[in-house]
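Risk register update: the risk of archive-format incompatibility is retired. Evidence:
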Amino acid sequence: MTKKTVSAASLAAQAMGWIDPVTRAVVPPIHMASTYLRDEDNGYSSGRIYARADNPTFDQAEATLTALEGGAKSLIFSSGMSAATACFLALAPGDHVVVPKVMYWSLRNWLATFATSWGLKVEFVDADRTDAIAAAVKKGVTKLVWLETPANPTWALSDIAAAAEIAHKAGALLGVDSTVATPVLTRPIEHGADIVMHSATKYLNGHSDIIAGALVGARDDDHWMKLRAIRAQLGTILGQTEAWLLMRGMRTLYPRVAWACRSAQSLAEKFAAHPMIEEVLYPGLPSFAGHAVARKQMTNGFGGMLSVRIKGGERAAVATAARVELWKRATSLGGVESLIEHRASIEGPGTPCPPDLLRLSVGVEESADLFEDLDQALKRAHNA
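Archived output:
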């Protein structure tokens, strides 16, 4: 068998089938070196100069992610924010970008404050509406259209292929934050995306023990080289140990995501009939507004993230979160433990998140246990 005939799940599980050529180890080592020896002619035949630009520990994680996403090259970063902001820092002051109104809060806040003060012209749109994207994009002026799909925390879906067509006709690039979908469920490059971003802290690592980010490029071109230079010049490099942990986590990506998808689907269906829940937001429900788009561009399931809007408003939502026992009240998502969070209070003033919403990240516990725990919390909060 060749790598082209082996499934992505098998490639991930075996880290591309890597074997150490000297020791025959099946797990890559951690390279701690910060600098590399010059040749006698003052060159670097190894291709490595200094660890702020590169490190051998990155090689396997980047190669594996490139294969899983079907891209040309990957770069791992010190955080999801450093990976995402690199895409905007690669632009010039005065450039116009189109971004979602509903998206990862920290990036949204950075775009609304730092990016605009630096000179980018940032336009926020309802990115789940293709017509809204088309109306905002300006030919020859817009340089980047950014999507997050499914979008945190309402899980709104953007049509990647339609947005790619709009962006490319205008001479712009399309970037997609695919943190929640992961390459298990969606491969944005196949739908026309130029750049895929991951907060690798989440599903790619999957164990809530590192902070990391990643970019995957559809092409190894001048723009990609600019992103690589930004990583080196700003020093947003991932630590060697963290890179090793990221690769370790990616080896179980497919079974973890598959389990989370099954559990999330089951929970969404049960909660949709719960008398104390106003609405369930989950792409796998036929009643969900973006279900048709989800079916078009998501395979193997609809993700491990869902949100529930609690009857009784913000007070009831906060009270419910306070009474869970198995779910953990914590920020983040995509780990093996299930997390619950009242997002509006975390994001603060200006958030587009409804105040009655609880965000749920489904881990690998038994879904029946997770349902019973939230059910008892809802009942206790209602009776308080």
